Amino acid sequence: MKPRLILILAGISIPAVLITPAVRTLLESSMSRHMLVMFPLLVVGGVALAYGLPRSFHARLLPWNREGIPGLALAAAMLMTWMIPNALDSATESLLVDALKAVCLVVAGFALAVSMPVAGLVAQLFFVWNSVMMLVYAGVLYQSLPTRLCSAYLIDDQAQTGLYLVCFAVLLGMAWLGHAWCRLRFASSSGPGRRSR
Amino acid sequence: MRTALASLLVVCIATGTLAWATDGFRVLTSEQARRLAVSERPVAVPDVGLRMDNGARQSLRDLLHDEGARSIVGFFYSRCTSICITLGNDFRQLQQRIVDEGLEGRVKLLSISFDTQADTAAVLRDYRERMRARDNIWQIAAAQDGQELAVLLESFGVTVIDDGRGGFVHNSAYHIVNARGELEAIVDLAKPLAALRAARGRRHEA
Prior knowledge:
A: 9 helices, B: Glutaredoxin, 2 domains, eight-stranded mixed sheet, metal ion binding (chain B), SCO1/SenC (chain B)
């Protein structure tokens, strides 16, 4: 099987598996699993889908997504929406909302994958910095609040999720710094507008 | 140009999804969303059967149905050592205020346990004695198991989860229900007096 086909299949099957009742129950019974396992897996699904599509598709998307700005903004909005406790609670209660969440996060991953390579470092920094700050704020809030934000989750779970969110934010920031360093280091040999894939 | 169009579209999508998640940029948590929804449009509570502390079975609607009266409904379980103790003590003080202000017949209290297994009639009677609950003001009941319990909790917006140590964790508040069985307001547990005002039919604080 062609690698592209495998990626597309992965992009479709990951969200499909994640919204089956058994997997939903397993992952959504804990806040940290919901936000730090299920969310990233759905985003990875979107990334896989984007990488599975042919280069010509990405090229056709480019005029609509110069510098990756609409794409990064879309990804940020999708991620932010599902970090709102009300949305998180709704997703645990209703399969329909959960399916919507899966679609949004797959879209976020897709938008990220098509936008990051065409975005300049400044646009990337803006997106990554905002995401890191959002995660850190949420993480500190989750750890410090004496009350529960989600009706579906315990307070200890919330505090633990907060800690994990901060760790995730730090890792994300460091990963981007590494990526930026590589891009700057090899920028002279590849010229502007190059696709980093 | 096309990027500008796409950006505009993204702004619309972002506004839409964020507005949905925050109920029009007004709430962050599901608890706030539920309070807002109820205050804007009263919700009919389901007519489920309850087990009273005297062993009798009675329907929720019948319990609430009392012309000109409103009930303050609270959910608890008798083994609870945290939030329900606050609720129980506040109900005691509310009962005293109802007596002091001559509000008998106008404001009623109803405690409903969701611990269908442990809270038998005898346990509830014991709870009544501990709380010195008066028959004419404060009713104490337990929900019936299964589907009815789920329907009841859902309609009041109460989420009960296992705490992993044999107990439950749940959200709690004062639910103001009128004689027609409509949930009119949900008042924060920290504001028993606001709950009493709402039950007297005066505009309650948000």
